[in-house]
Structures are given as C-alpha cells and as structure tokens.
Amino acid sequence: MAISRYDGFRTVRDEAKGVLRLETFPTVRASEIEDPNNDIIIEYRDGDRLDKIAFDYLGDGRYWWAICLLNDLSLPFGGLLEPGTRLRIPTNISSISNYIKNKLDSKE
What we know:
It contains three helices and four strands. By secondary structure, the protein is an alpha+beta fold. The strands form two sheets. A two-stranded antiparallel sheet has the order 1-2. A two-stranded antiparallel sheet has the order 3-4.
C-alpha cells in the first residue's frame, strides 16, 4: 500500500474560515516578522506577478511565498491583488527562513 505524502501533517482548524486543513506550514503573521528598517515597500501594479517581484527584489522567483507571508496574503493569485496595493518586500530572506524553522522546531 502506498504511503500518502501528507501522512506526516497534522490536521488543524482554520478558525478564520471554520474548516479543517493540513498544517503544511506553521501559522505566521506578518506582524511576527518585524524589520521595518530594512523592508522595502512597493506598490503592486496591474500585470505584476509575485514571482517576478521576488526575482527582482530577492534574486529568486521562488521566494514569492515570503512576500505572501509578510503581507498576510493567503490567496495571492487569481486577481485578488488590486493595483495600488502596498506590498512589504523583505530584504533578508534568511531571517524569515530562520524564524519559520525555529517555529517548526518549537512544535516538536
């Protein structure tokens, strides 16, 4: 019998939505990761993509998730971002990664 790739994840209740979901990523809010002196604020423009913004500012389009995290975006795709929305862009991706790793480690 095959083992599901989701076997290692806990089920948690998403209080905001009132549904159960897999805990694939620790709950982190933008306010927990404060670095106002170094973060960059940009204005989202029509046609922008978070992976392109991540590439332009962080050097790697795969860091789009960090932009989502710092802006409390749960569904960043599908036209939910309006032109003119201000986005906080991190300048130190390592500090975010370390924060998430520490949060995961503290749950074990």
